[in-house]
Automatic annotation (TrEMBL):
GO CC annotation terms, alphabetical: cytoplasm
The family this protein is said to belong to: Belongs to the DtxR/MntR family.
Protein name as it appears in the record: Transcriptional regulator MntR
Any Pfam family hit: Fe_dep_repr_C
Role this protein plays: In the presence of manganese, represses expression of mntH and mntS. Up-regulates expression of mntP.
Residue ranges of every copy of the HTH dtxR-type domain listed in the record: 41-101
Species per Swiss-Prot/TrEMBL record: Thalassobaculum fulvum
GO MF terms, alphabetically ordered: DNA binding; DNA-binding transcription factor activity; protein dimerization activity; transition metal ion binding
Cited PANTHER family: IRON (METAL) DEPENDENT REPRESSOR, DTXR FAMILY, TRANSCRIPTIONAL REGULATOR MNTR
Keywords recorded for this protein, A-Z: Activator, Cytoplasm, DNA-binding, Manganese, Repressor, Transcription, Transcription regulation
Subcellular location per the Swiss-Prot or TrEMBL entry: Cytoplasm
Subunit structure: Homodimer.
Length: 162
């Protein structure tokens, strides 16, 4: 199915099936506010999730390991760890491992759970594994609790049918 190029650019602001009929301005503003908030926490969630993964797998999370896995310099990790500390999500000492606070661990666990649901959903739809892993990494930060619940319910029905 090929989209009408004239209306394709309006797809995110028009009503489904009604190209050219814009959604309400307040609704549009709420969408963008939600997306901006998700972008704001996306990187923080990625870091706390990785720190939790490293602690769970190796017993510690070192800046050098985080830098390697995130594809950034250690100075970038150091700056992010300061942000995590300022938000009460992590603790660290100079030249020591990084640890999550209870709030940081909760955030990591919630992010992992969202990721798992989105990944299972994409795989159930037949999305190739490599693509599903990459897409789930982005979607997990933007999926609403309402949509996540629908995905969980759908996966549950699929599991019970098998």
């Amino acid at each position: 199915m090929t989209a009408d190029p004239k209306h394709a650019a309006l797809a995110h602001v028009s009503r489904p099936g009604e190209p050219g009929r814009l959604i309400d301005a307040e609704q549009h503003a709420r969408q963008h506010t939600g997306v901006r908030k998700a972008h704001e926490t996306e990187l923080i969630e990625d870091y706390v999730e990785l720190i939790a993964d490293l602690i769970d797998a190796t017993g510690e999370a070192r800046a050098v390991d985080i830098a390697q896995r995130m594809g950034v310099r250690q100075a970038t990790v150091t700056a992010m760890v300061r942000r995590l500390q300022a938000r009460g999500l992590a603790t660290s000492e100079p030249y020591r491992s990084i640890f999550l606070t209870d709030a940081g661990r909760r955030m990591a666990d919630e992010s992992r759970a969202r990721h798992a649901v989105v990944l299972r959903f994409l795989l159930a739809l037949g999305v190739p594994e490599a693509v599903a892993f990459r897409d789930a990494e982005g979607i997990e930060h933007h999926v609403s609790p309402t949509t996540l619940k629908v995905l969980e319910d759908w996966i549950g029905r699929l599991d019970s049918a098998s």
